[in-house]
Each structure stands twice: as structure tokens, then as C-alpha cells.
Amino acid sequence: MAKLDTSAVSFKNINSIAIPAIIAGIAEPLISLTDIAVIGNVEDNSVEALAAAGIVGSFLSAVIWILAQTKTAISAKVSQHLGANRLHAVKTLVPQTIVFNLFLSLLIYGITAPLAQLIFSAYNAEGLILDYSVSYYQIRAIGFPLTLLTFTIFGVFRGLQNTSWAMKCSLIGAVVNVTLDYTLVYGIDGLIPAMHLEGAAYASLAAQATMFVMALWFFFKKTPFHLKLSLKLNPEFKPLLVMAANLFLRTLSLNIAIMLANAYATDYGENYIAAQSILMNIWLFFSFFIDGYANAGNAIGGKLLGAKDYKNLWELSKKISKYAVLIALILMAICGIFYDQIGILFNKDEAVLALFASAFWIVLLMQPINAIAFMFDGIFKGLGEAAYLRNLLLVATFLGFTPALLISDYFGLKLYAIWIAFLVWMLIRASGLVIKFRRKYLNKEV
């Protein structure tokens, strides 16, 4: 038997993709966390503003995740063709995907912006929280096309096994957001009036524009692709849309779980949704952090599949699992040490902090499970296994999360009900992916 060449899945190769991807990945939730931290400490109506930022942030994440599935699809296609040494075959696919996403994002903006009040009423928002949600969203939503196009370009970068370009764009975007957050929310005496929640929205919009311009620069200067549109559809365009559609349905079911969680929290009261906003954004922050290794699995896994290198594919799954779980344990330890201090970063209201602290331990407990689920999720995306990912999320959401939430809510567990449901959800996702991968690829490795 030929000696296994593990250079493709070496510690250095994996981390050269994973570490920049981690930094790039946490930049987006960092923008939302910064908004929440700054808004939550504004003296006037901080609880209502914090609740509105959390509701809108959840909806924006849902829409962006759903629409950005072409990012994952184009990444898989580029990486597979890179592994097969056929990168020329997708040169017209890239601009066609970018143009498709431009029209899609404009369509979604045109539909959702006028219906913002109706949308956030469905989250049980009312009164001042609803007013804040509508005004905040209508500004942030202007950045839809910028965000979706940026993410699509990031997918091309990842397919080329490079996540450092996306990292640089995201870091600069985060710096712009943090700087403008403090400037526009609080204002500068005699120069800039305090804009409160709307100021945070404009800061986020400026950050999105910055990342888009930088992404375009790297695209033209560093990649072999172009934006010249061919009217003849690339043969991979239809398979890409099928894959994206499956991932779209998967992500839709994922965000139904998040929407239900926020709707229940809002119904429990403003203190509950404020606490839930903090918990959810920390959970998302951790998820994007761990997801760096999932990105490495996505990029390298697709390349290995294109090269039909199943031995290294199995080796990849073992190594990335170890790294992702280690990261999760480190995050748990840090948060355990500063358990009582973390909530204060986002809000000073004692009732909100008490609710946050009461449920935060469940969020921490989930992290190793999340690590396994996200890591295999990334590999499966790179392998093009979109249909299985779709079916698994549908099962996890409607046969796991939803019943767990309804039963726990019936017994009056409130915030506990929400996070018990998320724990059940992640257990189903992780176990389903591990079992499927072992059955399909372990035998091919031998």
C-alpha cells in the first residue's frame, strides 16, 4: 500500500486556512456584538433599544445566511475544480453567480424594507421596541447587496484555499464599525449629534461598504477570475443553483429555530428578549469562531474530493475534529472564569443580567457539541452533500428543536426552554453528520 501523504491535511495547511477564517468569521458577529454592547449602555431606553437590536440582528442573520448559500456552493465548486486541475472550467461561473446574487439581494431588500413593521410584529415586538426595530432595520437592510456580494467573493477566495484576503477585509470592516459605533451612537459634542440606535445602523452600513470595496480589490488583483459576464450559462451553474437551493432550505429551517426562540423570548417580556439577545449573539460569536475550522474542512475537503483522495479526507475529519473541540473547550474555560463579568459588557440592568446568568451555562455546555456539528457541516458542504444537510436540519428543527421548545415552555422553563431546545437541536445535527460521514467515507479510506 502506498504511503499516505498527509501534507494536504497537515497542521500547517489546516491552520493556514482555519485561523484567517476564524478571524474573518468573528468579524461579522463582532459587528452585531459591538452594536449590542454600545446600544445596551445608552442611558435612555437601553432595554428597548437592546431588544430591538437583538430582534433585527437575528432577522438579518437569518436572511443573510439563507441568501448567502451560493457562497458555500461557489466555494465547493471552485475547490473541487482546483483539486481536479480544471479551474478554467468555472471561470464564467463566478461572474454569473455574482450577478445572480446582486439581483437576488435587490429583490429581497425591495420586499422586506417596506414590510419591516409587519415582519417585526411577527416577532411579538410592539410599542417602542417595534419602532426601534423598524428604523434600525430599514437602514441596515441597505447593505444587503453589499453583504451578499462580499460573501460570494469570500466563497471564491475560500475555494482557492485562501481565507487571508477575507480576513483582511473583515478586520478593516470591524474597525470601521467599532469606531463609527461610538462616534455616531454617542455623538461628539458640538460636531456630531448622538444618533443612538440609528447611528449603530449607519456604522454597520459603512463597515459593509468597506468590506465590499476591499473584496473587489483582492478579487481583481489576486484571483484568476474576472467579472466579464458570458450570456452562455456555465454547465456548472444549474448544479450550483440546485446545491444552493438545498442549502437555502437547510438554512431556512435553521433560522426558523432562531426566529421561534426570539419570538418566545419576546413574548416572555422585554427583559427576557434583552437577555436572549445577548445569549444568542454570544452563541453566534462562538459559532463563527469554531466555524473557522469548518471553513478549512470545506475548502480542503472539496479539493480532496476533486482529487479523489479519500484517505486524506478521512484524516482531515479526525484532525479538524480535535482542533475544533479544543477551541470550544478554551472558549468554555475563558467564559467560565469571567462568567459574572461578561453580561455587564452588554447591559447594566440587574433583571436582564440575572436572566442572562441563569441560562449562560447551557450555551457554554453546548460548545463541544457545536464544534463537532459545525466541523462536519463544513466538510459536507465542501463535498457537495447539500441534500443530506437539508434533510438533517429539517429533522433537527421540526422533530427536535420545536417539540423540545413546546414541551419545555409548557412546564414554564422560559429561557431554559429555549436553550434546552437548542441543545437537543445541536445533538441531532452532530450525531447525524458523524454517522453519515463514517458510513460513506470510512470504507473508502481503507
Question: Could you explain how this protein is built, in words?
Answer:
This protein has 446 residues and is mainly alpha-helical. The protein has two domains: 8-234, no CATH class; 254-442, no CATH class. 81% of the residues lie in helices and 0% in strands. The protein contains 17 helices and no strands. Helix 1 (11-40) runs antiparallel to helix 2. It is globular, with a radius of gyration of 21 Å. It starts with 10 loop residues before the first helix and ends with a helix. InterPro entries: MATE_fam, MATE_MdtK, MdtK-like. One of its GO terms (molecular function) is antiporter activity. This is Multidrug-efflux transporter. It is a multi-pass membrane protein. The chain crosses the membrane at residues 49-68, 98-123, 135-157, 169-188, 200-220, 240-261, 273-294, 320-339, 351-376, 388-407, 413-435.
The helix fraction, in percent, is over 70%
How much of the sequence is in beta strands? under 5%
Assign the structural class, choosing from mainly alpha, mainly beta, alpha/beta, alpha+beta, or little secondary structure: mainly alpha
Low-confidence stretches: none
The largest sheet is: none
Order of secondary-structure elements: HHHHHHHHHHHHHHHHH
Number of domains: 2
How far is the N terminus from the C terminus? Answer: 10 Å
